[in-house]
């Protein structure tokens, strides 16, 4: 690993976000209008709340071709005529669970002493929504990051056969953090390279997410659970006593008439630790995509930890639903 951590030095060593963007939903922010998908074409983050989009400016994702182009605020490339950087598919950074649900992982590093970016993207099984998250591992005490989601513009609210307006979504959640990864995907440097100039690889997080939505009352809530680091550095794994992470909770938020939402994330102590948001898409809200931005106490032993995550899910009862959906008992007479 490129940095040696101790319990006392850890807080000072974590890379910080480059900007002063807020990291939770506030009264000044609303859910906005989700961008509209155009596979393989550049789509800006206009309409996505700044607490979620952060440094991300635009994305061009083609899930069929497996290509991803990204434009961040700075330090990912210097060509002003073509600001999008082409990311390289890096399936070795994806867990089995992520691959099984269609998540694609990409990376980008211009040279061995430039920032190393990781991106995770996916499209729902019906093609109605996409989501992505991007982050570099930090260099010179700062990092760049952001989340993205978009819809195909054909949204209609959920209307399940039981007519209660209640529907569920389940699947895999994938995140990136400002803690050091194991560095396996970094371009090699001479062993004597000074730590002050080494870039780091972001440690990745994987978990499960479950969402309930009420399209009669236009409300969403849920939880992200069974969370753990998939490639945390050995030093941090020892310091934290393992790679498991606490569950986090998506506090009830309003679904707009356009199918978008923005809410608060809480830890098990019911403390606000960030924001989540996204968009429903497709006929009767067949898919949902969204992102999280956690900038609170989601690792009690550490200060200044930050996580950006993405989820792209299919509604229970639809083709491509998660296996959890089959295990949910259904009330025959609601």
From TrEMBL:
Leader peptide range in chain numbering: 1-25
Lineage: Bacteria, Pseudomonadati, Pseudomonadota, Alphaproteobacteria, Rhodobacterales
PROSITE patterns: PROKAR_LIPOPROTEIN (PS51257)
Organism per entry: Octadecabacter dasysiphoniae
Gene3D superfamilies hit by this protein: 2.40.160.90
UniProt keyword Transmembrane, yes or no: no
Entry keywords, A to Z: Signal
UniProt protein name: Thymidylate synthase
